[in-house]
Structures are given as C-alpha cells and as structure tokens.
Backbone:
C-alpha cells in the first residue's frame, strides 16, 4: 500500500470511528431508560441517586458528557462499567480474544466447506453430486446462524449429548495462561488436552456461524469458476489435454478467488455481528455475550466501548481484505 493511500485510509478510519462514537453516544443518551435505576437499592434516597449520577458524569449536559468521554477515550480510558464496576477497556480486552478465536475458526470452516463444495460442484456438473451440493446450498442460504445454533444444541447437546453446550473450557481443567487466546496458547504450550476441550466447546458455535458464510462462498466461487473455465487460457489448457480437475484447481481457482475474497471479507464483518446471538445461545464468554449483558443493564460506558470495538474490527477487516485483494490482483499490485 502506497504511503499516500495509507495516510488517506488512516484518516478515513479515524473519521469513521469518530462518527460512530458521536452517533452512538448521543443516541444512547436520548433513548428512554435510566441506567442508575439498575444500580440503586430499593428505598435509595435522592441524595444517593444524585451521588451516583455525579460519579458517572450523568448529571451534566450531553455535549459536556461527550467532551469528557472523548478526552478520556483518546488516552485509552473508556470509563467504568455501570453494571460490573470494572474498567471498560480491561473488560473488553478480557473477552475479545474468545470472540476472535471463535470467528477465525468459523472462517476456516466456512472457507474449507465453501471452496471444497464449489470445486466438487464444478467437477460434477450435470451429475447428481453437483445437484446435491446446489440443493444443500439453497438450504444453508435460507437458514440464519442462530437457527443453526439452536438446532445444534437440540441435536448434539440434548438428543445426542456428545458436545458441551455452554462455556469455553471445562472448569475442572487446570491451566494458567498469559493471554486470553486459550486455544492458540494451549497449542503453543503443547497442552493438547486443553486445546481439545476448547475446540469441543467452540465446534457448535463455530459451525453455526460458518454454515451461512460457507453457502455464500460456494455460490460466489462457483459462479466465478464457471466464468474462469470459459476463458481462453482454460480452453487452451483443455485442448492441450489437461484434466478438468487441474484446470479448475490449478488454473481457474486463483483468479476465481479474487471476487470471492472481497465478498468473504464483507460477510466476515457480519459474522462478528452474528456472534452476539450465537454466543448468548451457547453461553460463550465473548464480546457478543458481553454486549447483550450491557444492553440489558443499560450499561452506557460498556455499550459505547463495545460499539467502538466492533467498528474498529470492521475497519481492520476491510483493510486486510483490500490488502489481500491487491496481492491477488496483479493489475492492482502493479498499478
């Protein structure tokens, strides 16, 4: 990425985050509801309520509240959670690794299923395997992630209880890791018992998130492969006697991945939004589950911090997709 383009991207990202912060802050302050009411004990006096409002800066005008919050946020201080009385940034940092590991596992599953099914469908055109793949893909496109989550809980947690339905790791296991990336660190420390247990907890929520994305990848990649296999280079390869498998995998797949990657990046950002409901269903301790707790308790500082975190994640993912797109597309790489 050229320096001028990088600077422009950084400025755009900063303005985007600022806009998200402004809109979120003011909307949260004007919606009905009093967050202090969640904290006070029955029979609390007016003086107690006024003291709590002053402690959280809610006794000042909304513009003044925003200015104070913005000055603190620039220094990395997003305030104190109203419901947990903990530092917002520390609370998010504690939960974020769990969501990152879950979504990355879901992305790997989605890519494996989507690419594999697209190649199989291309190699089995006008035969029954291709028809089966297309019909199953229609089902996957129609069913949202939270429905898959509920189905997996009923199937593999109740009817055939072979997988854990809540949590991230069995509490009976003993470990002391330095980071919140439990799966990654357990593999690096050769604690494969922990890694296997974490994977067993992540499998159902990751599959629930992955299946809708896999369906999108399959449809887009298959259409791109059909276009690429009709290009001159693919026709020439067939004339030279190259097998259909080699044409699809070795010649056409790289070019077909360019539009697929762009759409996958967009859908991956939506996957982070999908973690809110899926994590709640499985009791998974990520920022999606934390977001619902914050909304239920009307925890304004925590909601504000979480929305900014989601916004930053979306920006980072889009930047990574643009960089990968440029690497795969020689016209952009050498332009």
Residues:
């Amino acid at each position: 990425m050229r320096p001028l383009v990088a600077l422009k991207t950084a400025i755009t990202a900063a303005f985007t985050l600022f806009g998200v912060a402004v809109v979120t802050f003011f909307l949260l302050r004007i919606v009905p509801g009093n967050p202090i009411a969640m904290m006070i004990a029955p029979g609390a006096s007016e003086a107690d309520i006024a003291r709590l409002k002053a402690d959280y800066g809610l006794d000042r005008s909304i513009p003044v509240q925003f200015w104070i919050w913005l000055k603190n946020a620039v220094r990395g201080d997003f305030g104190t959670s109203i419901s947990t009385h903990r530092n917002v940034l520390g609370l998010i940092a504690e939960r974020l690794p769990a969501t990152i590991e879950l979504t990355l596992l879901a992305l790997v599953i989605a890519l494996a299923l989507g690419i594999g099914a697209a190649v199989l469908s291309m190699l089995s055109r006008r035969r029954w395997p291709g028809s089966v793949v297309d019909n199953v893909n229609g089902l996957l496109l129609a069913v949202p992630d939270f429905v898959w989550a509920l189905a997996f809980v009923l199937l593999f947690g109740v009817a055939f209880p072979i997988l854990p339905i809540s949590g991230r790791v069995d509490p009976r296991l003993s470990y002391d890791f330095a980071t919140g990336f439990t799966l990654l660190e357990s593999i690096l420390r050769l604690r494969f018992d922990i890694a296997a247990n974490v994977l067993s907890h992540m499998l159902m929520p990751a599959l629930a998130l992955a299946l809708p994305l896999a369906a999108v990848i399959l449809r887009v990649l298959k259409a791109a492969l059909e276009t690429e296999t009709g290009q001159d280079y693919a026709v020439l390869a067939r004339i030279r006697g190259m097998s259909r498998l080699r044409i699809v995998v070795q010649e056409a797949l790289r070019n077909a991945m360019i539009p697929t990657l762009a759409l996958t990046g967009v859908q991956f950002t939506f996957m982070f939004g999908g973690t809110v409901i899926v994590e709640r269903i499985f009791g998974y301790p990520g920022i999606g589950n934390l977001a619902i707790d914050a909304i239920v308790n009307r925890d304004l500082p925590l909601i504000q911090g979480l929305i900014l975190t989601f916004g930053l994640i979306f920006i980072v993912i889009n930047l990574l997709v643009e960089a990968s797109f440029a690497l795969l597309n020689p016209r952009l790489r050498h332009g």
The chain has a mean pLDDT of 84.
